[in-house]
Amino acid sequence: MVSDHFYVCPGHLKDPGFGSPIINEEEVAAKKKKEEKDKEIARVKKEYEEKQKKKKEKEKSKAKDKESKKDDKKEDKEAENSGDDKPDPSSSETKTSSSMVEEIPRVYALHR
Q1: For residues 108 and 23, is the Cβ–Cβ distance under 8 A?
Q2: Low-confidence residues of the chain, pLDDT below 70?
């Protein structure tokens, strides 16, 4: 099988009369499996972080019982300030933009 490499604009690749994409089913299945694993890992990480937050809250509540009311007010203010952790949106944008580029098949059979 002869394969030539050349640049073709996205407009021609979308034209059904120009060429047909050759889809490798093994690669598609491997990508899907990898995405499922990544989702599962993200879910488990999120659950773990929630458990850790609950554990810290329980420890703080026990400490409140032992300490005076003045110390409690100071800790509450500190907890509110430190509890506003937000995930970095730029990392998720990078993942979505790279996956969009890979969605387009890279191997085509040209029509003659």
Answers
A1: no
A2: 1, 67-104
Please report, as a single letter, which amino acid is at residue 41. Answer: I
Q: What are phi and psi of 34, to 5 degrees?
A: -65, -40
Angle at 62 between CA 59 and CA 67, to 5 degrees: 120
Identify the CA nearest to 72 among candidates 80, 50, 52: 80
Angle 46-27-33 from CA coordinates, rounded to 5°:
25
pLDDT digits (tens, 9 = 90+) for 64-90: 777 655 555 666 666 666 654 555 555
What's the DSSP call for residue 9?
Answer: -
CB 22 within 8 Å of CB 108: yes
DSSP state of 18: T
- What is the C-alpha separation between 110 and 14, in angstroms, rounded? 12
Yes or no: say if 110 and 19 are a contact pair by the CB < 8 Å rule.
yes
* Residue 43 tokens, joined: 């879910």
